[in-house]
Amino acid sequence: MPERAGYRPGAGVQDAEGEPPQQRDTKDRILDAAERMFAQGGFHGTSLRSITGEAGVNLAAIHYHYGSKDELIQAVFARRLAPLNRERLRLLDDLEARAGEAGPDLEAVIHAFLAPVRRLADDDSSRRVVVSLLGQAITQPDEKIRRLFISQFAEVGRRFLAALTRAVPHLPPEEMFWRLMFMVGAMVHTMTLSQHLEEFSGGICRSADVSSLVTHLVPFVTAGMRAPASDGDGSREPV
Amino acid sequence: MPERAGYRPGAGVQDAEGEPPQQRDTKDRILDAAERMFAQGGFHGTSLRSITGEAGVNLAAIHYHYGSKDELIQAVFARRLAPLNRERLRLLDDLEARAGEAGPDLEAVIHAFLAPVRRLADDDSSRRVVVSLLGQAITQPDEKIRRLFISQFAEVGRRFLAALTRAVPHLPPEEMFWRLMFMVGAMVHTMTLSQHLEEFSGGICRSADVSSLVTHLVPFVTAGMRAPASDGDGSREPV
DNA sequence: GTCTATAGGTGGATAGAC
DNA sequence: GTCTATCCACCTATAGAC
Fold it and tell me: Which of B44, B123, B176, B236 could bridge A45 with an S-S bond, Cβ 3.0-4.6 Å?
């Protein structure tokens, strides 16, 4: 490594590979810190000052690189959601290409939807918080955040709804949509609580990692999807 | 009604019955407004000023009646969660009293858990927001809110886990706990999105009320609970 | 119990030097 | 690109008159 002649901020790290997290670009450090802090304290509950403190950068750097807190939040999501949904669509494409006229098997479709969330948590241990972040975001009342989610989810929802409907014939589209929501809900909710599952279960649940979640969720959802369509107004009391 | 001789704040409304919402006690008006505003804007995102503005009371009244924002939040929850879980336990008690040695039927237990949420939304149209509020709260990263939820849910979780395990023998407790979380997740998540389900589904889902949710969710969860236990590490790719 | 007034603090955002 | 310094809007909470 050449001696440092003259201070050129941010220039020295570009030619290094495998640089420690503390020396990455300011812009990325902000994004990582923001993700961590948002997951821990929520969006309204996390101040930009706490993010810059965690990232070891200046407060003004956030506004320089991202413009505003809102745009920072959107950037945090875009980085995770885009690859996640791309992977889901890729897996579904593969399944449909290999399947015959009848389309892919139900369990395979469900697996294609759920398995990609593993990558969110397993790539990097420091990114485990992401799963909590996504869980929060989807229940967030904020209009902008919800719109971002809906737009990111639109194509995935449409494609998987079609694949599921084909795999479980004779189920009304409305019923299938409800069940798709149930699957998303079971996944998101359990992901969100994953950090606290052991406490929540009183020790029954020991390994609350995302991989276990997927493992347990796939058979549950597969069976649920195959349930007969609901009937009546639901007000009956089964005894 | 007697003419108003002298201003005695809050005294006149006590002998009236069926008074309009604007004239109820300040304390209740605050609670109702807080619930509405929290559901709409989140906890950190909602200021006490916006609550008092909505309720038509003074800012200081919140601190007089509830002490602090934190305690107000807890009061909002306690009013809804306590009856909800009491109703669940009552239904489960009834089921177990009427069932034989083998314990109540699986679907009946699931129904006992899910049906009480109907009361949250159907009693009063202005309370529909409650379902969104509860959904938010359970994913909230705030330590205090989460602890409140865990403590409120403790007995219900224990009792229903036992009942479910008895209704579906030969399923390991850990597996059953995962599935209980899946049920809660599917319920909470769909409740949270219920206000936006029509938009989310692109028109497929027209009636997104809580009653429909329960109707559709019961058979889904019942089938999921009966699924064979998961095996392996979940990393296989079913094709 | 209800109000005004204000303390005391923190938030996001920006201007301008370097 | 990075930093200091600062603006100003807004927050929770409280003191004290009525």
Answer: B44
